[in-house]
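User: hey, got a sec? need Enoyl-CoA hydratase echA8 folded
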Amino acid sequence: MSKEYTFIEVSNQASIGIIKLNRPNVLNAINRPMVTEIVKATEAFDRDDSVKVIILAGNGRAFAAGADIDEMAEAGAIEMELLNQFTEWDRLAWVKKPIIGAVQGFALGGGFELALCCDVLFAAHDTEFGFPEVGLGVMPGAGGTQRLTKLMGKSKAMEWLLTGDRMSAQEALHHGVINRIIAKELLLEETLKFAHKIAQQPSLSLRLIKESVYKAVDYSIYEGMQYERKNFYLLFASHDQKEGMRAFREKRKPNFKGE
Ligand code: CAA
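Assistant: Yep! Here you go:
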């Protein structure tokens, strides 16, 4: 389905919802309506029982070259505060299904922040990440200073954020920002393969694993372990736990139902 700023589709074998940014003439600069489209499509996939995994991808020369500078260049502080546009981005953090990012070309500013909203990130060799906001007289506003710091630690994050320098895919891999580097022509294909692999897993487990991993980022080890344990126990209420363990004992493939 073609929206104004995105393409939304479900993969051939179903189960994978794909959202592609589509504003190639401005390198997929993210304007507010595009954010609305991305968030709505992601939430719709999250509600759709036939979809197990979501892919967020770019298109053309960029994943996204940042938030749309034209949209905010002349804005005032009070206007920005009242608009509070980034709360809409925050809704991506509430999505329960795994989101896999497939990024290529430029992933700058808000484009990098959008990539960092993904749970797993694959990048083409040519990807350039970075936070050029400092050179525009601003700073990241959609989670960049927080998520990058949690991923690579204070000192390294400082360096990238204060200089605005671009980070290659190789550097991003080295710092644990991305999961894999993939040849550009194979990026979507390989991302789909990976998405299909996790889509085979019982969806309640995926959901509670994702939730628990994020608790590890924000909670103390003790609180995180308590959270993990409750989720572990909760899964014993599911059909898929009984099916998974019985199938193991009966030496057959499990038939998961997502319940
Ligand atoms: N906003 C609006 N338009 C953008 C844009 C952006 N972030 N990035 C690129 N474009 C537009 C350019 O203005 C240009 O449009 P025209 O053809 O109409 O002139 C078109 O996309 C192609 O871009 P370039 O001609 O500049 O392409 P290039 O290959 O020479 O350079 C680039 C590519 C290095 C990515 C360069 O476009 C660039 O520096 N873009 C801005 C990057 C940036 O500063 N991003 C941060 C934005 S602020 C932000 O994201 C805040 C936040 O935290 C949410």
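Quick note: The mean pLDDT is 97. Let me know if you need anything else on Enoyl-CoA hydratase echA8.
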